[in-house]
């Protein structure tokens, strides 16, 4: 089970234990803001979320491993979305947090990916979704641009084609 050690009121640290600044970011660099901290803090409640995959299932992405999916709000709408079909017309309500635990061959969580539906206007290019990628303890992973949180353009290329499903893939129907 995911345990997030970082609360939304605590300083966020990178993988090396360095506290990330709240100051304005350098050009083209990502830093943590209040939304990022809140979403990561909310992920600590994953034990109270609806599990939408009945068991770990193989990711369609090569080398990713198995995944377990959880959703913070009413899961009925989310369960209408499946990667093998498109056009569900489902729109997930703002405030919904989706937690995807990436598991290794022994069933241990190795990484957590998060998507959180924000209020209209957050990121209209991708349905107002916020993204995050953390380690199992909730510490954001880093890439060349900083912590992997917020409007992650790397996520856009995969999710843009899913506009008719609120930019989501869901869980394969056989794995619900």
Task: Provide a concise account of the structure shown.
With about 180 residues, the protein is an alpha+beta fold. The protein has 3 helices and 9 strands; from the N terminus they run αβββαββββββα. The relative contact order is 0.22.
Describe the structure.
The protein has 176 residues and is of the alpha+beta class. It has a single domain, classed as Chalcone isomerase (3-Layer(bba) Sandwich), CATH 3.50.70. The chain is 11% helix and 22% strand. The protein is built from three helices and nine strands; from the N terminus they run αβββαββββββα. It has helices spanning 34-42, 75-78, 153-159; strands at residues 50-51, 57-58, 66-71, 97-103, 109-117, 129-134, 142-143, 146-147, 149-150. Strands 1, 2, 3, 4, 5, 6 and 9 form a seven-stranded antiparallel sheet that branches. A two-stranded antiparallel sheet has the order 7-8.
- How far apart lie the N and C ends? 18 Å
Find the count of extended strands (DSSP E, 2+ residues).
Answer: 9
What series of H and E elements makes up the topology? HEEEHEEEEEEH
User: Based on helices, strands and strand pairing, what is the structural class?
Assistant: alpha+beta
Helical content (DSSP H or I, runs of 4+): 10-25%
Give average pLDDT, whole number: 83
Rg calc: 16 Å
> Which oligomerization state do the chains in this entry correspond to?
single chain
Q: Uncertain regions: pLDDT < 50 for 5+ in a row? A: 1-27
Strand content: 15-25%
